[in-house]
Write a structure and sequence with these properties.
By secondary structure, the chain is mainly α. The chain is built from 15 helices and no strands. The protein has 2 domains: 141 residues, Leucine-rich Repeat Variant (Alpha Horseshoe), CATH 1.25.10; 81 residues, no CATH class. It is 63% helix and 0% strand.
Length: 282
């Protein structure tokens, strides 16, 4: 049921105030970046807010989640989702939002008919997925997100937001089976999408100049792909794959890919080198 206009205005003011508080907090905390699932970081320990402020933040998050449940105004929904997404930059808030049943409330917004609301819901879940326990709950939406990616206009913001969430959810092999039917769509996007959608040409991702987190994910994808291509005898079955398939690019010893892997063995990051060894020894 739509809220009275006065209530909607007050709610919007609350959202803007909460959003401003988070922006100021993030600036004061130095704008820490989220890291990979299970290791997302909040503000530095020496700049954490006092306990009373932390309690107010929990209360504000609960109000935002309740507001998202109560209103059908798309502008308020969008602003609430943006604020929740920004708050998920802090690992402690990722846990709080889950404990407040925020994941299911945000997940219901994926069915919203307004593309902007869908996009903001996907962005919020993407940030919240940088947490292993959250992934266990978010995985129930993978099939729906895959359908959204397939049906959304090519290169649209909704499609890109869905792809980012699926990328985070596929860092481990736990949920790959839920995405398998969408592989033809992903290959189509890799071929027909813009550079933002291709992110960028696949082989070019395997380079020491690429952002470390992206490089680790690309290597983990290649290692998991090669592992899952092994047959019951532990060898790779090649005859069913064409020479222009991702399998041939990443799982066979093609010269461009092999050269890039060899150079990455000298990468300074330990996890990068571990993923390279996984690929080479499978």
């Amino acid at each position: 049921m739509r809220e009275p206009r006065g209530a909607a205005v007050r709610a919007a003011a609350l959202l803007l105030g909460a959003g401003a508080c988070y922006c100021l907090w993030r600036l004061a905390a130095g704008g820490r970046r989220g890291q990979r699932a299970g290791a997302a970081q909040g503000p530095p320990a020496d700049s954490s807010p006092p306990v009373s402020t932390h309690t107010m933040d929990v209360d504000a998050l609960q109000k935002l989640i309740h507001l998202l449940q109560a209103t059908d105004d798309p502008l308020i929904q969008e602003q609430a989702l943006i604020t929740l997404s920004n708050s998920a930059a802090f690992s402690v808030n990722q846990d709080i939002i889950r404990n407040l049943d925020g994941l299911s409330v945000i997940g219901r917004m994926l069915s919203n008919c307004i593309p902007k609301v869908q996009e903001k819901a996907l962005n919020a879940l993407n940030n919240l997925s940088m947490n292993v326990k959250n992934q266990e709950e978010i995985q129930v939406y993978i099939t729906q997100v895959c359908r959204t990616v397939e049906s959304a206009p090519l290169n649209s913001d909704v499609q890109l937001a869905g792809l980012r969430l699926l990328t985070n959810m596929s860092v481990t092999s736990d949920y790959h089976q839920k995405m398998i039917n969408s592989i033809p769509c992903f290959l189509h996007l890799l071929s027909e999408g813009t550079e933002r959608t291709q992110v960028p040409s696949l082989v070019l991702l395997f380079d020491s100049c690429i952002n470390r987190d992206i490089l680790v994910r690309a290597l983990a994808f290649a290692a998991n792909l090669k592992k899952n291509m092994n047959n019951e005898e532990g060898t790779v079955s090649e005859e069913q794959y064409s020479e222009d398939s991702i399998f041939f690019i990443l799982c066979r010893d093609s010269a461009p890919f092999a050269q890039r892997l060899a150079s990455l063995l000298h990468h300074p990051d330990t996890e990068v080198k571990e993923q390279v060894v996984r690929i080479l020894t499978q």
